[in-house]
Amino acid sequence: MSASTRVFVARLTGLSVFDPLGDQVGRVRDVVVVFSHARPDPRVIGLVVEVPGRRRVFLPMTRVTSIDAGAVITTGLVNMRRFEQRTNETLVAAELFDRTVTVTSREAEAAGFGQGIVEDIAIEQSPRRDWYAVKVFVRQTEVGSSASRAMSRLTRRRSGKTMLVEIRDVVGLHDEAPAQSAERLLETYDDLKVADLAEVIHDLNPKRRAEVAAALDDDRLADILEELPEDDQVEIIAGLDNERAADVLEAMEPDDAADLLADLPPEQAERLLQLMEPDEAAPLRRLLSYDEKTAGGMMTTEPVILGPEATIAEALAMVRREELAPALATMVYVCRPPLEAPTGRYLGLVHIQRLLREPPHASVGSIIDKEMEPLPAGASLERVTRTLATYNLVSLPVVDDNGRLLGAVTVDDVLDHILPEDWREERHELEVRP
Fold it and tell me: Contact, 380 vs 291, CB < 8 A?
């Protein structure tokens, strides 16, 4: 590998990592550097690599034999232990991109280029084969109108002068940063599924987590909150202003939103409920009235509900909705009007497999399964679990004393309550091989 090898981190992230035999090991997600007072150029100590199973591991630069435009080649020895950032380490994409810095070079002063935003950082291998961060690509801080800035965000085409400068001429790169954008960070992880992005956000420091939350739209943030540990959920919601926190709660699944509200101080939870739309807050108040480990406390209030006269075609259209969770899409609940929980009298259920075997024009009322007994809202976690396992189901109806459908409890809701509380943090540790 040539001593003059230079690579920009934004282009490095996403590259495939291969062993010497050509087998893919994973994909680069970030670069780890260490700042030192003894040297102006931060030393690159390794890469964060995403391996199969969406686990992020640490690959030391001493085990990187080649980097080119299309791939990273390693010695083949990769420690599969989950990456944990140390206090003296800095993640380039996660923490340095979008940081506001001051450029002090003569060229910058002559061009009237003072403050700017870090868009990329170049790393380079020295003659001794060590890697260092040597250059910073900086875009001048935008001074245009709010409309032009909004258009730049929409089109992802940024305006303003740019410069590639020596890293030693950049002030503020390693200082405690004020409020920082997360736009570039989110672009880096744009291909991740919600659960995997949630894990990335969990690994960030609290300040950076708050900045990422601020950059996400309400629906995306709601999806991510549902995948985060309880402590992270509470931290992020507490860091939002009340109006936005209420909007995000409205976008969450009702059962997840109710669980989050239950973890907040009662007075804060009540403030947020009062800021929500009444028809959005009402189901959450009902859920909060049940014990957490009962069918009522675990259920969602938004299953697929149809009247008996609805056709098979209508039912299939309902379960095909992209936003519907897979577990909820397996079952249609048939009730008398009103068709929103709590409904009129519960009549029975129809499994999606039965829908697929019937003519589209037939009514769902003609194929109702009335043998499956619904659960009362007070049914224990053990009873719910046993019923799901006994009948090989992934969801069950929950009714009140008058036989009205209140909601449905799904297998993922049950798993959330029977797995250890820290399962989200430890889920990849179970896959580590010696």
Answer: no
